[in-house]
Amino acid sequence: MSQPDEPLQIFTTGGTIDKVYFDSLSDYQVGHPLAEEVLRQAHVAFPFTVTSLMKKDSIEMDDADRAAVRAAVERCAAGRVLITHGTDTMADTARALDGIPGKTIVFTGSLTPARFQESDAFFNIGFAVAAARILPSGVYVAMQGRVFEAGRVRKDRAHNRFEAVE
Fold first, then answer.
1. Span 123-133, mean pLDDT?
2. Does the pLDDT of residue 53 top 80, yes or no?
3. End-to-end CA distance of the chain, in Å?
C-alpha cells in the first residue's frame, strides 16, 4: 500500500474525458486535461503531478503513441502512475505497458466528457486514484467501479462497458 505522502504521477493522453463539444453536430476537440482540477476540487491530501503527453482521441492513437506513453512511464520517478486515456483503445495501451517493473500503473477514462453534468469522469478518476495508491505493481484498467489486469480486459462497445477477458 502506498504511503500517505507518496507522490502520484498522472499522465493525460486525451480521449472523451477531456473533450470539449462546440455544437449539436458533435464537433469537438480534446481540451485542457481536467484530472488536476478534479483532484483539487476533491481536496486530495497527497502530492501529485499532472503531465499532458498528448491530446488525442484514442481511436487516433497508434503504436508510436503507445511507445511514447510507455517511455514516459519508464522515465518517471514515481512508483504509482495514473493515465487518463480514451476508452476505445485503452486496453491496447494498457497491454503495451505491461511488464514495466516496480510500478503500479492504472488507466482510466470516461464514457462521457468531464465537462458534462452527468459524467462518469469524476467517479472514474477518484476510483482510479484509489486503485493506483493501493494495488501492487502491475498494469490495470479501472473503469466503472471495477479493476482489470492489462491483457485481460476489453471494451464491450455494444453495452458501453468494460469486461474481463479470459
1. 93
2. yes
3. 27
Whether residue 42 has pLDDT greater than 80: no
CATH assignment at residue 131: 3.40.50.1170
pTM of the model: 0.85
Q: How many independent structural domains does the chain possess?
A: 1
Residue type, 126: G
Rounded CA separation 9/157 (Å): 29
Helices and strands (DSSP H and E) totals, the chain: 4, 10
Q: Which three cell numbers stand for residue 162?
A: 468494460
Beta partners for 158? Answer: none
CB 147 within 8 A of CB 129: no
Mean per-residue pLDDT of the chain: 84
Between CA 128 and CA 112 the distance in angstroms is 16
